[in-house]
Amino acid sequence: MIRDLAILLAFSLPVLAVDGVAINVTTGKPQAGVDVNLVQPSQNGMVQLGKTSTDAKGQFKIDKQIPPGPGLIQATFQGTTYNQIITPGMATTGVQVKVYDATKKAGVAKTMEHLILLEPGIENLRISETFVLGNETNLTFNDPAKGSIQFYLPPATGGKAQVVITAPGGMPITRPPVKTPTADIYKIDYPVKPGETRMDVTYNVPAADKFAGKVVASGAATHLVTPPAVTVTGDGIEPAGQEPQTQANIYTLNAPDYNLLITGIGSLRGDDSAQAKGDDSGSPQVEIKKPRLYAQLFWVLGLAFGILALGGTMLYRRGTV
Questions:
Q1: What is the DSSP letter of 157?
Q2: Do domains 2-101 and 110-317 have the same CATH topology?
Q3: What is the maximum alpha-carbon separation in the chain?
Q4: In the CATH scheme, what is the code of domain 110-317?
Q5: For the chain, what is the radius of gyration of the CA atoms?
Q6: What pLDDT, in 10s, does the model give residues 211-228?
Q7: Beta-bridge partner residues of 75
Q8: If one looks up domain 2-101 in CATH, what number appears?
């Protein structure tokens, strides 16, 4: 009883101050000059509670009261913000916030997977392009001039697309596509921290039985996916089988430019009826909760691609013996 009361009080009482140190993981030392912002989520967005900068020893202290509920420390260093959640009952003294040196060096962030999903409806063709970036270094890749990735948007989109980014250990956030000097090529200006970062670009164009796209330089093979009832043919693409669980059709893109002839309509998101009726407005939509199947689709397809690659390697080796 007493213990339960103590826990309840810990969750309901405000926190009076937060202090700690910013550690630069790249150097292994405390980091001076880190901007530290203490915020708390609310129904109206993030509410700023206090801010400061780390001193010569990398230490910081914010003498501000955190109302009951979780808080968030945002540490900004070399153009990148690193988050540390403060949950109710968590110690707020001696908090360690990790930051990393930033670099524009090519190869620090690598494209591990690149998928393009086509979902034709009666009125709209929905395209979802997924990039999974891996960073196995102790540096953060940050190149505002070129962006973390670049991608093609058809002129019919007017440069409008929904971009959702999921950083390592973070929640999905949205960012606008940024135009580059090259016609119809856009970028995502978002740092790639150590670990795995996923970037999803979704847009709609008017329904048609033809679609032309481009793949901007990518370090990984690009696969195109369609629902079971949808098939595509054309230049720069070849069939690569079906995914066993969803029966999705998988294709490999062999050229940076591809021209497709599309047959059929369908969706892998569980909302085929909306697509078929043309209920999709054509503007980017924020999906609060996707169907369970679609949430796991990327990993299921990734496994299928791995099996296909392994089979191809075995056949190649057998042919060279």
A1: G
A2: yes
A3: 74
A4: 2.60.40
A5: 23
A6: 999 999 767 889 999 999
A7: 36, 82
A8: 2.60.40.1120
